[in-house]
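User: Okay, second chain of the day. Same drill as before: sequence in, structure tokens out.
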Amino acid sequence: MKFSPKSCFTLDDHEKGVLVVRFNGNGEYCVSGGQDRTIRLWNPHRGVLVQKYGNVHGYEIRDVQISHDNTKFASCGGDRDVFLWDINTGTCLRRFRGHSQRVNTLAFNSDSSVLASGSLDTSVRLWDCRSNSKQAIQTLTNFRDSISSLLISDAQILVGTVDGCINTLDLRSGTICTDHLGVTISCLSLSSDQNRLLVSCLDDSLRLMDLSNGELLHSYKGHVNHSFMVSSCLSHDDKFVFSGSEDGTVHYWEIQDPSQTSFVKAHKHIVTSVSHHPKSSCLLTSSMDGTIKVWKL
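Assistant: Same drill. Structure tokens below.
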């Protein structure tokens, strides 16, 4: 198997390393953020910078999440606060305060009425995006280490932590189930059917797990990831797995064949983030070299 993108072009406007890039829900545009403390809205298919959002964050931006109706996005980072933005006007609608340390990760629920944030302070906070309240709806503090990744599915909140735990909070029963992997978790990604969980770990491996029982289905190796929070993702049809790498490459596996890995030299520095188009064969990658690349697969 060979990774052979049909075309690739570069979005180059960030002044420093880009830590995150994400497609919106229909794949028409994407947002990026990083060390230069600004967020950019792009049309990645035309290579056009649509809007730049700045003058709010005082530290690096570690995560950006777009609401499911594509009208808002949330951002977080070293500020300890969480910001909610209007995409069209560029207005900062809300500033949520409560975390005592850097905020690493964000996730919206299915109707984008609630935003979850996870922090270095070992807590997850839930925020009401529809009211004017700036106080957390709920604060979850039963974690032993920094929160590195968050997901909200239909009935669960999934929390990955630096001490190597995947904590599954069942919203219906209120119970928590913990799977101990024993190695730092950097990224969680759900399959489109929400039955499988892709886990990036700082031992140069990815793990695909059955969400219902925690069973390990496959393990993927070949990339380099042991010291930096590098993301991974599944393709829109759940047939392929993609991951960034600390050596500037992007790695690619067929989901059912982890023994064969393909890669392409994508960037000059660490590939921090990957995001697959929700409907077609297109991949975004971002890097500490300050660039974003759009790959037509």
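The chain has a mean pLDDT of 94.

User: Thanks, on to the next one.
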